[in-house]
Amino acid sequence: MKKVKLLTLAACLLPSLSFAHNLTLNKEVPSVSIEQYGEIFFKNSAATYQNWNTEQLKGKVRVLQAIAGRSSAKAMNADLMSAITLEKFPETEYQTTTIINQDDSIWGTGGFVKSSAEESKEEFSWSSMVLDEHGKVAKAWDLQPESSAIIVQDKEGKILFVKEGKLSNDEIKQVIALIHTQL
Q1: Range of the domain at 27
Q2: May I ask which residue range the UniProt record assigns to the signal sequence (predicted)?
Q3: Beta strands 94-101; 61-68: pairing state
Q4: Where are the beta strands (DSSP E) in the chain?
Q5: Treating both helix axes as pointing N-terminal to C-terminal, what angle do 169-182 and 78-87 enclose, rounded to 10 degrees?
Q6: Which residues is 182 bridged to in the sheet?
Q7: Which H or E element spans position 4?
Q8: Which of 50, 97, 120, 160 is deepest in the core (most CB within 10 A)?
């Protein structure tokens, strides 16, 4: 009888142990607009910001990397970002979009997070970099704090893959193969 009660209790707790996000395969990401900072561009060697929203994600196959404004979150899926860079996907059909949650940074490091985002945009000019000062994306998508989420979308904006946390080597291969099938 005790085993039945324990199994029932465990079954009730399982949903709370599952993914924290509200992202669903074959659906679009929940709509979000960022007016405070936003997408980073360079004009005359100076960083500028433009409003950004999720509607801009359509039209290309994308890997969205939504990360906390912490070096540990950036490093979490650096192997995937390196693998994507090595693939040299065609810029007309593919783009990586990194959304940095500046609200989820270590106290006092907001300026460093901003300058690091600008440096990354300058280094990887073909990528889309979005600085989210108030963490609107993380809130709208129910993302885990201090982490990294990887989302693969098709050209219509439908989610094909989603995972929070560090991807395994097999998951990195899966993401790369998935991008190839969508191009």
Answers
A1: 19-182
A2: 1-20
A3: parallel
A4: 33-43, 46-53, 61-68, 94-101, 128-132, 148-153, 159-164
A5: 40
A6: none
A7: helix 2-17
A8: 97
3-state SS assignment for residue 152: strand
Residue 55 corresponds to which tokens in the numbers above? 């509607």
Measure the CA–CA gap between 68 and 168, rounded to whole angstroms. Answer: 19
Residue 11 lies in a domain: no
Amino acid at 101: N
CA atoms within 13 A on the CB side of 87: 21
Type and span of the H or E element at 119: helix 110-123
What pLDDT, on the 0 to 100 scale, is given for residue 130?
A: 97
Could you read off the pLDDT tens digit of each residue along the chain, which spans 183 residues?
554 444 443 444 444 344 578 999 999 999 999 998 999 999 888 999 999 999 999 999 999 999 999 999 999 999 999 999 999 999 999 999 999 999 999 988 888 999 999 999 998 888 999 999 999 999 999 999 999 999 999 999 999 999 999 999 999 999 999 999 999
62 is written with which tokens? 């994308």
Using a cut of 0.70, tell me whether the model's pTM lies above it.
yes
CATH code assigned at 74: 3.40.30.10
